[in-house]
Amino acid sequence: MRMQRGGWATVALGLVLGCATRQAEGDASAAQPAEGGMLRVTGTVRKTEVGVNCWRFEGSDGTGYELMPNLTPEEVLRDGQRFTLILQPREGVMSTCMVGKIVEVIRIVSR
């Protein structure tokens, strides 16, 4: 099987463009910085089987954030719901769930 002249260049260009498009899509779904060290994240809420009353917010890029019930509006704590949230990472807070970085939900942007 022989590749026609210029065929390799076409294949290489396709690979480069495919990777660039994939990277741009990944960037759009990742956590975006917001004001004051906060994060804007789109993802899905999950009730975990670890511990008692442990909730995880899984960003579209796969990053996990722990939603503590006392730092999260009750309407967010619904397994399988998708949201875009403004999150504030919390320092000096401990949890036995250990399902991601502990965050406080500052605002619900969209459902």
In words, what does this structure look like?
The protein has one helix at 7-29; strands spanning 32-33, 39-47, 55-59, 64-67, 82-89, 101-110. The chain has a 5-stranded mixed β-barrel. With 111 residues, the chain is an alpha+beta fold. It folds into 2 domains: 1-29; 32-110, OB fold (Dihydrolipoamide Acetyltransferase, E2P) (Beta Barrel). Residues 11-28 have low confidence and may be disordered.
Indicate the topology:
Elements (H helix, E strand, L loop, with lengths): L6 H23 L2 E2 L5 E9 L7 E5 L4 E4 L14 E8 L11 E10 L1
Parallel strand pairs: 4-6
Antiparallel strand pairs: 1-2, 2-3, 2-5, 3-4, 5-6
Briefly summarize what is shown:
The protein has 111 residues and is α+β, with helices and mostly antiparallel strands.
Number of separate structural domains? 2
Largest sheet: 5 strands, mixed, barrel
Tally the beta strands: 6
Strand order of the largest sheet: 2-3-4-6-5
Roughly how many Å is the radius of gyration?
19 Å
**CATH homologous superfamily of the largest domain - what is it?**
NigD-like N-terminal OB domain
Low-confidence stretches: 11-28
Order of helices and strands: HEEEEEE
